Amino acid sequence: AEMREYAEEISSKVKYYELAADKNFQKEYIASLYFPHSDLSKYPETVELLRRFGQKI
Fold first, then answer.
1. Sign of the C-alpha dihedral, residues 27, 30, 32, 34?
2. Domain for residue 57, yes or no?
3. 39 and 57 in contact (C-beta within 8 Å)?
4. What range does the domain containing 7 cover?
5. What's the rounded Cα separation, in Å, for the pair 6 and 9?
6. pTM of the model
7. CB distance 40 to 57 below 8 Å
8. Is the pLDDT of residue 57 over 90?
9. DSSP letter, residue 23
């Protein structure tokens, strides 16, 4: 709880943060766009249910 309060205190003081100044921002941002559900091989049960209900996969 103490660290959460500290984080909230810091965030309340920040007015602006230049994301481009962080050398890892673009890499992390692009990585965050990946949707794991786009790899249907990881969800065979869901694929089977969708097929049963007439969805073309």
1. negative
2. no
3. no
4. 2-52
5. 5
6. 0.38
7. yes
8. no
9. T
pLDDT at position 39 = 83
Q: Is residue 41 part of a domain?
A: yes
Is the distance from CB of 41 to CB of 31 less than 8 angstroms?
Answer: no
Write down how long the chain is: 57
Q: Which tens digit of pLDDT belongs to each residue from 7-29?
A: 999 999 999 989 888 989 998 88
Q: Which residue has the tokens 């810091």?
A: 10
Tokens of 29: 């941002």
Nearest-CA neighbor of 19 among 29, 11, 10? 29
Domains identified in the chain, total number: 1
Q: How far apart are CA 40 and CA 46, in angstroms?
A: 8
Q: Residue 30: what residue type?
A: I
